[in-house]
Amino acid sequence: MTNTLVFVDMPTPDVQATTEFYRELFGWTINPRPQGVFHQIVPGEGLHLGLFDEAAQVPDPAPLPQQPRAGLHSRVYILVDAAPSEYLNKAVLLGATALWEQCYWEEFGGHHASFLDPWGNQIVMWEK
């Protein structure tokens, strides 16, 4: 296969706190590689994700100073096993900011809801 998406990394100033947030929210296995610098998220089936320290920016060989985030940015979609509203409520209790409540997207035949994690990464939870 060529030109295949293999991984998505999310920046964070606190890799350990972000690890605990996603472990608690989705029950994911998260492997520190190395601890506090880059953590590999293994969400069961599907693609793996990563969390990287904004300061170190592994694997960038010459990281630049982190710029403040502004405007729109990429979204990470997570296929969930229950109503997205259930995960949205839990995410908010863990410190996330709700972006939109559960609604139906007719064109794709599924329900979704979205939040910004405490570090500014946007997650859309999807249930078909």
UniProtKB/TrEMBL annotation:
It comes from the Bacteria. Residues 4-128 form the VOC domain. Signal peptide: none annotated. This is VOC domain-containing protein.
